[in-house]
Amino acid sequence: MKFTERLKNIGPAAIVTGAFIGPGTITTTTISGIKYKYNLLWVVLFATISLYILMEMAGRVGIISGKSITEIITKYTRNKYLKLCLKILISSTLISVAFGFEAGNITGASVGLGDLFGINQFVASIILGICILYVTYVGTAQTVEKFMSIIVGIMGIIFAITMFWVKPNFTEVAQGMIPSSINLESSGEAIALIGTILIGINLLMQTITNGEKWKSNEDLKYSKIDSFINVSVGGLIATALIVTSGSILYGYSEGVVQSPIIYSQMLEPILGKYARQVGNIGLIAAGFSSAVATPLILKTVLSRMMKWDINDWKSKLLSTLGVVFGILFSAFGKKPIQIIVFASALSGISLPVLTICILISANIKQEMGRYKNTRIQNILGIVVVLLTTLLAINTLINFISFIKQ
Asked: A single GO molecular function, which one (predicted)?
């Protein structure tokens, strides 16, 4: 396959990468670098591999079956009450995660835009909001995937440049890639890193976009290449963020991280004002890409599950409300910590259920035929299910502790 042909077929997976590389990921990876330097890089590597396993599986299901994960699971679930519970879980997760993350995405992007051009957050939020609403209203998965491919590429270049710019000790970086034991103190950060990369609703989107773009089993190779490239870039970005913050701020109190803007601010004393501007561009790209992807995922997955047309007024209304919600939070300087915590908790708790749904779907012979999971793929899938279950338990414990405060 020619290199140009491979590039032409890159697309759907960029939506997933664009969605998870947002202000939340920047904040989480920055804190990890500050507290543990490069010691948790192997966790990012492990989470990135897990994401690829799930995305390959989800993409294969979409192409071979022509159905979404939710359509397959509800089709083969006999118990009507269990079917109803699954629909409620998925729809409530979709809506709350989309609204909560959108508030964080627009806030992060507006902070970067405001710092770059010296404008207040209200104005920055309105400018970004109008752009996001336009893309949300007129955009389709096909048009957005091309846009996302460009944005993800820009983010990869920016964050990689800043990583090399700070001149880290690459021997220590390599050592950080080697799995080591996690103590009780660092376990929370390790789980947070996994949670910021593995987001269940993104995987549901992967099935739909792959099924719409590719129709033949001959296209599976394109899906695998697309997933591999985009997941690798996402992993590189997360790695670069940890290496950069670990090189500059390791040993500082994590309390310095009040906002994702700390990423661009921390570059200035070491590398000058231009580095801060580069960091701001990266922050804007991360926030904007996630802010565009999130409402698209909401309306695409929900409309497929509820059997609405993608252009139905109900689909567009929900996605528009999500963006407006984020604009209002950002414009009036609100810190959407409570709703983001709730959205993150629901996302983490529902992830094992969605992962199991993907694993089951990939093993249904009536849908997958000879392309159903192999034994090795099932073993890898079970490992990921166990990982996401650990994440869910930790998320639930942290959420209970948070609401008790």
From this structure: manganese ion transmembrane transporter activity
